[in-house]
Amino acid sequence: MRHERDDMAGDAGELRYTLTDDGAFLRLRWAAGVTIGGDDVRSTTAAVTAASPDGRRPLLVNIGLVDAITAEARHLLIEDDCSCRTGVVGVDEVGRVLTAFNYRSVTPEPVLHGRGGGDRLVDRRGLRR
User: 28 and 58 in contact (C-beta within 8 Å)?
Assistant: First the structure.
């Protein structure tokens, strides 16, 4: 079952994104030429949460041909937990950078601490492995 759930228009009335419910997951599509800002991230987070009253669901984000993403938006995306899993699909360099950024923000980076027999791996969150 697929149906429209929400969309956001900017100050000039231009459509910024559309959120659809595809049954097993939600799909967020950004409009071409948009610079994703903090208000956009807050709006999409609220819309995704409202579309999932029984708990977090997977989210597929199609960023299409967005122009850019602000530093505030990037910070908010790192903190975002409105979906249980998020996939990002893009078609250009901005999409590639945003996908890499999202991947790196949630993937532990092993760091070697200590010397000799006491070496251990500690990820960026400080969890020992």
Answer: no
Nearest-angstrom CA–CA distance, 127 and 52: 31
Q: What is the pLDDT of residues 9-65, one digit of tens each?
A: 655 567 899 999 998 999 999 999 999 999 999 999 999 999 999 999 999 988 888
> What is the DSSP annotation of 61-125?
EEEET--EE-HHHHHHHHH--SSSSEEEEESSHHHHHHHHHHHHHHS---EEESSGGG-EEE-TT
d(CA 68, CA 51): 26
Helix axes 71-79, 38-50, angle to 10 degrees: 30
Mean pLDDT in residue range 84-89: 82
Q: DSSP string covering 37-66, please?
A: -HHHHHHHHHHHHHT-TTS---EEEEEET-
